[in-house]
């Protein structure tokens, strides 16, 4: 079984993130051995057009059982499981100082798409695992590249798409603690698929 863990805000620092906790945590997770699971990680730049091209290409090339996008959020203080993504409202400039045309992800698509994965169940599983990390569920991935990339995947297949925000390193978790939390997220999601 292949799982793609994609990190769309991992091409070096951006904004206040001089170290991208999401990419560091995903790299740490890739070192783990999860029985029966092949983890494929990708780092994609914070560029709308690149995301719009590379995400569908990855789905096509890998044909994964599960796609989990992982991003960093300065507002997060727990592993934040995003239940849905939005199609419009993308007015924040990417690292190339561009926005998508019409501030939209997929022309003609629904305004909002929800993952078929029950994030409340994943949250409960993470919080009941005995790990130091805690999880929460969110319905607002932020109308930036995280939300945008998630919508692209949900538009491809809602039944096996997910997005997880992690807090910056040390606020409050280490990269190892975040990787342990992501492993529990994977196990819980695989139980639903």
UniProtKB/TrEMBL annotation:
Claim: Signal is one of the keywords in the record: no
An MF annotation (GO) of this entry: pyroglutamyl-peptidase activity
Enzyme Commission number(s): 3.4.19.3
InterPro entries: Peptidase_C15, Peptidase_C15-like, Peptidase_C15-like_sf
Annotated Pfam families: Peptidase_C15
Record's protein name: Pcp
Gene3D superfamilies: Peptidase C15, pyroglutamyl peptidase I-like
Enzyme class, broadest EC rank: hydrolase
GO CC annotation: cytosol
Family: Belongs to the peptidase C15 family.
Keywords linked to the UniProt accession: Cytoplasm, Hydrolase, Protease, Thiol protease
GO biological process terms, semicolon-separated: proteolysis
């Amino acid at each position: 079984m292949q799982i793609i863990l994609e990190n769309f805000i991992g091409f070096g620092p951006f904004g206040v993130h001089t170290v991208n906790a999401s990419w560091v945590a995903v790299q740490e997770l890739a070192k783990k051995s999860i029985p029966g699971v092949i983890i494929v990680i990708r780092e994609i730049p914070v560029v709308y057009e690149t995301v719009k091209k590379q995400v569908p290409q990855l789905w096509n090339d890998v044909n994964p059982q599960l796609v989990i996008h992982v991003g960093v959020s300065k507002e997060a203080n727990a592993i934040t499981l995003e239940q849905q993504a939005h199609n419009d409202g993308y007015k924040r400039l990417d690292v190339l100082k561009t926005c998508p045309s019409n501030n939209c992800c997929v022309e003609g698509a629904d305004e909002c798409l929800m993952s078929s994965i029950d994030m409340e169940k994943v949250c409960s599983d993470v919080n009941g695992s005995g790990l130091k990390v805690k999880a929460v569920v969110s319905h607002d991935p932020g109308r930036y590249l995280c939300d945008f990339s998630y919508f692209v995947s949900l538009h491809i297949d809602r039944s096996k798409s997910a997005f997880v925000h992690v807090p910056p390193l040390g606020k409050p978790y280490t990269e190892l603690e975040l990787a342990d939390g992501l492993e529990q997220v994977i196990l819980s999601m695989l139980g639903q698929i």
